[in-house]
Amino acid sequence: MKLIDKISSSIISAMKEKNVSELESLRAIKSALLLAQTQKGSEGNVSQSEEVKILQKLVKQRKESAEIYNKQNRLELADVEIRQFKIIERFLPSQISVEDLEKIIIEIINQTGAEGMNDMGKVMGIASTKLSGKADGKTISNIIRSKLM
């Protein structure tokens, strides 16, 4: 079942349950996916990796907004954002643990022969493609930086 179909059926369920926050999150996902489908060059198709990137972007936006609201002491708005990103995360592939992520990154560093920060781009490129959808880019970057210093 395609992601857009899963989202559509979840929207129907949320409407029946009158779950406003879930409905809002699901509509945001569907809107982003439909926008990607209609963009020039997509030919009406969105690959699974593009869907994951879209969902990750939506989660990242919600997390950043929640942080800003928390800093401004607007906890009710932060709670809305947190609730939304948790709903969106349900449709993402399961994320890899930090310990496993470190092992994979050390493996990549050993394979590439990276020795310092000037090799970060090489390691980051390989790690990003290998771990696409399984880990956040910021987390990957931080671990690589700590291992190459």
Describe the structure.
- This protein has 149 residues and is mainly α.
- The model has no long low-confidence stretch (mean pLDDT 89).
- It starts with a helix and ends with a helix.
- The protein folds into 2 domains: 3-89, Uncharacterised protein YqeY/AIM41, N-terminal domain (Hypothetical Protein Yqey, Chain: A, domain1), CATH 1.10.1510; 98-148, Orthogonal Bundle (Arc Repressor Mutant, subunit A), CATH 1.10.10.
- The protein is built from 7 helices and no strands.
Tally of contiguous helical segments: 7
CATH topology of the largest domain: Hypothetical Protein Yqey, Chain: A, domain1
**Structural class, please?**
mainly alpha
**Rounded mean pLDDT score:** 89
Helix-strand string: HHHHHHH
- Determine the CATH superfamily of the largest domain: Uncharacterised protein YqeY/AIM41, N-terminal domain
Largest sheet: none
Radius of gyration, whole Å? 18 Å
Uncertain runs are none
Give the amount of beta strand, in percent.
Answer: under 5%
